[in-house]
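Quick start: read one record
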Amino acid sequence: PVNISGLGNPRRQEQNRAVHETLATAHALELIPDVPATFSATRNRAGSIRWTLMIAAAIAATSLATKLGPRGKLACLRLLTLLGAAIAVAGIISLRIAPQGSTLWWIYPVPDALPGPVAAFRNQNHFAAFLAFLCPAALALLARDLTRARIISSLLSLAAFVCMSAGLVLSLSRGAILAYGTGLAACVFLFLLYRRRDFAALIAIVGALAAAFILFAPIPALRERLATFKNVKAEDSYQTRMDAWRDSIAIARDYPILGAGANGFRLVYPMHRTTTQGADMTHAENEYVQWAVDGGLIGLVILILIVIAYLCSVARPARSFLPQDDITIHVAALGGLAVLATNALFDFPLHIPLYTIPAAAVLGLVLPHFSIFSLQSSIFNFLAVITLTLAGGRSLNLDTPDWYAGKSLPVIARALHAAPTSQYAWFFFGERLAAQKTPESNLFARQCFTRAVVCDPNNYRLWDRVGYQRQSLGDLDGARAAFARVKELRDWMWVPEIPKEQP
């Protein structure tokens, strides 16, 4: 209920109350059918539902992986490695031969994004991170196949590793290259830990060759990217990340215990950001920072417990007596975990389903048991997640501006209730109110526009749209203030001159 929905958090309480009073007024004007009686703790209900669906799928993947026998686990690992190689080949074609444009697999259209889609990923960095995660698996399988003198399998594992390494390098992703190096170093360390110095030497040689190729490859774009390591602080991406991480401290202060909710960052960051950068920041570009913002203190404790529990589960005291197949799976999983932990410092891989679900399967292969779901329940869980995702459709994207196109006032009212800090929800709710063209709705719309810019005060595009809306409603003082803010944020923007009095 709204009176206790803050859960001891004044900021959350104030946000919920503002939405409740707005919807109550709209209901009194007979513009919406009802007023919601309760609020969620999360600031982004749709995003939290997406996260819940993905975690459910990841848990099912882990559960299924633990239930495989020794041969099944190796087959699963090999299948995922071949999947990575196939995606790498498609990515190389996309990067060097036939660009995909704004599509996945050259077929499925997706919104424009930088640096652009590659194969099955909307972003080159995520494509590279996925390949880096599976490279330790390819190396572990290569070592096993060489030991057993399986020439064809060895060649397939080597080809998979080479393809994934090449795709990763051509993506020019600096964070993925660093994570890739961490993964190779982890493989060497793990083989030494398991007393397989021959394998450690093999991986060290492969790693040295890969490093030499990366450093001396005749690829001008790659050399330019690597040269930026000399002065990382001069890069725009560095500054963007630093701004996001610094501003995240203010968010954590406002939501200290429960956090802003899963995927809540994207709807609370605009209110706290000090930068005036025009692009939306949907994630903190660091999983650890995002976890602190989204989950608060409780979320951080849970994360630490999960990591400790996992490492304790996979640790075995008699390392020297591990069977060869177990060593292969351990190196693949723990080497991939090193890649994931490194990549999470610069990106948000755990928010990418195609990364998270295969990663959950690989990490599950090394667990001795994981009994949350039975085999049948795990399969049912996968089917349920797919069904719910398809059934949800665009309703799971109400935290994006495109979702609001053509939506009615009652539908946007539900979105406002689900995302109390969304500048999109407040703006489009006000826009639909202004379309009613009554004195009451006009006054009400002006209040919603004001709330929208409170939720994103450094967004010059939003201020510009609010200025025109206020002008159309006859709020000339408000329009002048909005356009003055536009010029303050972007002095090159053209804004109309507003007369002192109504003509």
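DSSP finds 19 helices and two strands in the chain.
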